[in-house]
Structure formats: structure tokens, C-alpha cells
Design brief:
four-stranded antiparallel β-sheet, 11 helices, alpha+beta, Glutamine Phosphoribosylpyrophosphate, subunit 1, domain 1
Length: 352
């Protein structure tokens, strides 16, 4: 009997040691530095199908995504900060009519362009955000300026514009943001809305495919610099036909943007109301910090499980402290790109 007990004790010790060795091995593997620096971006998610995309349009999106990410990559390669890389990268997309941010922003119900953006520094956990501005050329630059030059995290509307003027940011006439494509999109949605209301079918307005997909197009970037600092930023024109000063997730820290050097950086795109309720960006970081999940495990759980069950659609780009990157979305496509420290470029649009 004593021999049996002794053998069982030895077996338990052996298995415990084996399991400890396995866990230690997994932990070491997770903490391996994959990239000394890296950058990842998105240009919006939604019903993006190959059959609906011309070769010329596809080439234009890919070209602009490549232009944007290479700006940030070059900054990081030359020893620049993740903050500068995120700002300059997003500004390229803000200046393009292809994306729902800056120049390509969608129109509100009142036929205006109201812009939102946010930025977070993973080293200090400091952040800046702006909502509902109509005359600031670069909302992401304003978000960063709010972080660095004010005691606040978020400013909105005319007050944010006044702050931007005081700080010397470029102010433009609101007509700068006008694009025929976005204006026509608003008119189509208004026509469908009117038809539905005329037929006393109020619910039809909110389930129309064009209206539903008008929420997408936000741009975002996450970068890791050579000093190990993560930064994340997001910029958008919001939702076509939005009313009453509606604000989505893009300027909300923890929903549209989050960064923490201990875990990861995240930028979101999708149906903002669901991203706010789910605190998508922060949830990914929290799962990594408190449940020791990998970046891929956390992004997959939040987007494919929690967000999907709630009824939300969209996606994220994320980058962890070791340079691991993740694209995760539950829509048909997401404009996206990434570059590692070796200069390898990934450039995609559709779901694989």
C-alpha cells in the first residue's frame, strides 16, 4: 500500500513539473519579440464584395492603402515615434476621397460633414479625441493636439474648432469635404427613407442594405516603434444620414481606439453603437492583460463571439507589444494593410 501511495505521489509531482514546463514554454513563446517595429491599418469594413468592385476601383484602394502605410513604415524604420507614424499615416487616408474620413467624409441628414477622431498613447495611457467638427482639415491631428496641449480628453463641435484655431491647425471651408459620390449616397438614402415613411413602413428604413452599410468606411492605424511604444488612432466621417449630433465609436477611447504598452493597440471600424456598448478596443486589451490571451485569441473572441452575438458588425486591426498583428472582422471585407520590420507588406480587401 505504501508503495502505491509513493508511486502516485511521484506521478503527481512528475505531471505537475511537466505541466509547469509546458506553461513556461508557452509563456516564453508568447513573449518572443516578433517585430522590433510594425504598423497595421484599416480603411473601413462592410459588404465589400469582389463582384461589386471594378479593377480600377480596387487598384485605387490598394494604391492609397500602400501609400499610407509606407509613410508610417518609413517613419518607424528611421527611428520615429509611433505617434508620428499613426498621425501621418491616417492623414494620407484623410486626404483621400476614397475613405469615410476627412476629405471623403459622409454627409449628415442636414447635408453637412461632421468629423470624429481619437488617438491614444500606449506608454502614458494619455488620449485625445474630437467629435463633430466641420472645418478642421485633419481630425486626427486635432485629437493628438487635444491630448498634448490641453487638460482634456475630448472636445466637440465649435469648441473643438476654436481650440484648433488657437493651436494653429489648418482650418478649411466646410466645402472642402464635399464629394459628389458621398452627397449622392445621402440623397439615395433620403429617397428610400421618404418612400418607406410614405408607406408607413418605418422599420424598412433601418434594414435597407445601403443604409446599413453607410456606417462603414472609418480609417485607423496602430503602430509599434523601436522604443517599444504603441500608439493607435482612428478617424471617421461617421454614418451617412446621421442626425441630432450622433457620435459613433471612433472618438470614444476604449471603443474605437485603445493602446497600452503592456498589451496592445487597437483601432475599430463598424457599427459604432455596438462597438460602444461592447467597449471593443479595451476589451481586447483587457482579455490579454487579465486572461493572458494572445492577441489573436482576444481579437477573435471579441469580434467573432461577443460583438457578433450582440448583433454588431465590423472589425479591428490590432498590434501587440511584441509586434504580432491581427486583422479581425465579421463582414464580407475590410480594407487593410500591414508591414513588419523586414518591410513585408500585406495588402487585402476581401475575406479569404
Amino acid at each position: 500500500m505504501k508503495k502505491i501511495i509513493t508511486l502516485l505521489s511521484l506521478l503527481i509531482v512528475f505531471l505537475g513539473c511537466k505541466n509547469e514546463t509546458k506553461n513556461s514554454s508557452e509563456e516564453t513563446q508568447t513573449n518572443i519579440k516578433k517585430n522590433k517595429f510594425a504598423i497595421i491599418i484599416h480603411g473601413g469594413a462592410g459588404t465589400i464584395l469582389k463582384k461589386n468592385m471594378s479593377d480600377e476601383k480596387e487598384a485605387a484602394y490598394k494604391s492609397k492603402l500602400e501609400d499610407a502605410i509606407k509613410i508610417g513604415y518609413t517613419i518607424l524604420k528611421n527611428g520615429g515615434t509611433s505617434q508620428e507614424a499613426v498621425m501621418k499615416t491616417i492623414q494620407v487616408m484623410e486626404e483621400s476621397p476614397l475613405f469615410n474620413a476627412g476629405k471623403g467624409a459622409v454627409f449628415t441628414h442636414e447635408e453637412k460633414n461632421e468629423l470624429d477622431a481619437s488617438f491614444m498613447d500606449g506608454k502614458t495611457l494619455n488620449a485625445g479625441a474630437v467629435a463633430g467638427v466641420t472645418n478642421v482639415k485633419s481630425p486626427i491631428e486635432l485629437a493628438i493636439k487635444i491630448m498634448t496641449d490641453s487638460d482634456h480628453v475630448m472636445l466637440s463641435g465649435s469648441g473643438a474648432s476654436e481650440f484648433a484655431k488657437e493651436k494653429g491647425l489648418e482650418i478649411v471651408d466646410p466645402s472642402y469635404f464635399y464629394t459628389e459620390k458621398r452627397f449622392k449616397s445621402l440623397q439615395r438614402i433620403k429617397d428610400k427613407e421618404k418612400t418607406a415613411l410614405d408607406h408607413d413602413d418605418k422599420k424598412a428604413v433601418f434594414y435597407d442594405a445601403d443604409i446599413k452599410n453607410s456606417k462603414f468606411g472609418t480609417v485607423g492605424c496602430v503602430a509599434l516603434d523601436k522604443n517599444g511604444n504603441i500608439a493607435a488612432g482612428t478617424s471617421t466621417g461617421g454614418m451617412t444620414n446621421k442626425r441630432w449630433g450622433r457620435i459613433g465609436d471612433a472618438p470614444i477611447i476604449g471603443s474605437g481606439t485603445y493602446a497600452n504598452n503592456k498589451t496592445c493597440g487597437v483601432s475599430s471600424t463598424g457599427w459604432g453603437e455596438y462597438f460602444i456598448r461592447s467597449q471593443v478596443a479595451y476589451d481586447i486589451s483587457a482579455q490579454m492583460e487579465y486572461q493572458q490571451k494572445t492577441l489573436k485569441e482576444a481579437t477573435k473572441d471579441v469580434i467573432q463571439n461577443k460583438l457578433t452575438k450582440l448583433g454588431g458588425t465590423g472589425g479591428v486591426v490590432a498590434l501587440d507589444k511584441n509586434g504580432n498583428m491581427s486583422f479581425e472582422f465579421n463582414t464580407a471585407g475590410m480594407y487593410r494593410a500591414s508591414m513588419d520590420d523586414k518591410g513585408n507588406l500585406i495588402l487585402k480587401i476581401y475575406k479569404e
